Amino acid sequence: AQTVTQSQPEMSVQEAETVTLSCTYDTSESDYYLFWYKQPPSRQMILVIRQEAYKQQNATENRFSVNFQKAAKSFSLKISDSQLGDAAMYFCAYRSATNAGGTSYGKLTFGQGTILTVHP
Amino acid sequence: NAGVTQTPKFQVLKTGQSMTLQCAQDMNHEYMSWYRQDPGMGLRLIHYSVGAGITDQGEVPNGYNVSRSTTEDFPLRLLSAAPSQTSVYFCASSYQQGIGASGNTIYFGEGSWLTVV
Q1: How much of chain A exceeds pLDDT 70, in percent?
Q2: Which residues is A74 bridged to in the sheet?
Q3: d(Cα A51, Cα A53) in Å, to the nearest integer?
Q4: pLDDT tens-place string over residues B17-31
Q5: Largest CB tally within 10 Å, which of B17, B47, B62, B78?
Q6: Is A44 close to B111, i.e. CB distance below 8 A?
């Protein structure tokens, strides 16, 4: 079974600065997807960025980028030019790309989450 | 395009009562699932379905039932509510097979806040 670990329960950053959230995972699979979801106080789950494991290039979405280290099983999220609206809980999640028996493909395994505070 | 719709958004139950959380999606996704989110923890999978008529248990299935009679709907039933089931519940859906980048993404409803007293 896969596990996802976020070792930083809380992080803080000054507005306009850069912050990096850490995520490690454990899997025996070679093909999978990794995601970062943002959850504001409304509890809505908002997809921030996704990474396909077969791609060596790190994904980037505007101010958000990842550092994907497949051998180290590490998937960190970097937020540049932090804004007050970035304050939220952030979850790292793993999804298998192997459709084993048609049952595992859609499952997401989540980390425990990191609360990000942005100071003005 | 409504995406994933959950109802109700808020509910208070008494211990022992039963209720159903509704989930509907209009994206023709084969895969649907229910998660619960408790304080200090990530989302945990309760039940999932890979298509109409097919369901299976996730990580924390006890006390919950599901059925999938149509592609669009995936209700979650609490059989006899307990205080330990106080949580925020999320329904999610996705394509079974990746279809381009968006096919890999799992879409979430807005959550249902359940309190059992």
Answers
A1: 92
A2: A24, A69
A3: 6
A4: 999 999 999 999 888
A5: B47
A6: yes
